[in-house]
Amino acid sequence: MTASPDTPAGTSHPARWWHKLDDGRLQCDLCPRDCRLHDGQRGLCFVRQRRGDAMVLSTYGRSSGFAIDPIEKKPLNHFHPGSAVLSFGTAGCNLACKFCQNWDISKSREMDRLQDEASPQRIAEAARASGAASVAFTYNDPVIFAEYAMDTADACHALGIETVAVTAGYIHPEPRREFFARMDAANVDLKAFTDKFYVEQTASHLAPVLDTLQYIQHDTRCWLEITTLLIPGLNDSTPELEAMTRWIADHLGRDVPLHFTAFHPDYKLGDLPRTPSATLQRARRIARDAGLRHVYTGNVHDVEGGTTRCPGCDAALIERDWHAVLHYALDEHGACPHCHTAVAGRFDPRLAGRTGHRRMPLRVVV
User: Fold this and answer.
1) Is the confidence at residue 232, as pLDDT, over 70?
2) Is the N-terminal amide bond of 75 cis, ω within 30° of 0?
């Protein structure tokens, strides 16, 4: 049973997707980690905890902060380009990425730092008041606060606000069905294309992520884009990128946007170099050679790498620099004005240019 949207903020909330084992432990069935807990123990994500004979979500209604972002920052380039999105996250994560770029949030074990409290209803109302077209569950993986994200999505949809999940896609099939049924768009972080990388660098596995990608693309109405952070020497080899982009083309289709983003030294991989722009450009060429129509570069200034081109006549339809939309030429139907070829995505020219390229902190009043 899920809570109503007006559940008080800042309280532990009954968690779903768990069962009791014969040895008395409770197994969390949310993600493939299958954490098995004695009373008082928390899962690896740190926010799902056993209390007595039940599981609770300790971060329901508590956020690490709210902000208005450009939707391109998620990154989503084919979901209402140029629109504003209200973004928030909580704390914790169900992966253990050594290269985490938001480690101060996702690896946090300090629940007291979650000072911003808001019910799902208040978040939806704040999004509408700020002019945001959508609310994004981001900064840390919304899979681990699925109950909070789902209740917030319901409240948003009631007010005509769409919802976005920025996730690693590490989730079991049953909660996955309920979670993505409430999402209008998702950017899934495909961290690499070898299980070796997933095991050694994230303490997880590749196969469940590929299952999630195929599920979203073929079994939901959720718009899908993919991001791969290219880390020098770990996941940026030409053979791996060729295999990954062929898999995307064959299993997801040529119209799924793919973002290659630049790594900067952080967390436990501070001794590695930044990703050279040449690596991003090489990856983009490989993906386009594999047949992918919409391939982007991120975390760098690269106008060509941020430009959406017509798959029919190759005209530049949306030009971007970093997260800023410089030019928008799609017609009201989301098609090229020159050859009338439809571009895959969700487009509304009325939303383009609603926000700039910078993050603007927002206070959500409880």
Assistant:
1) yes
2) yes
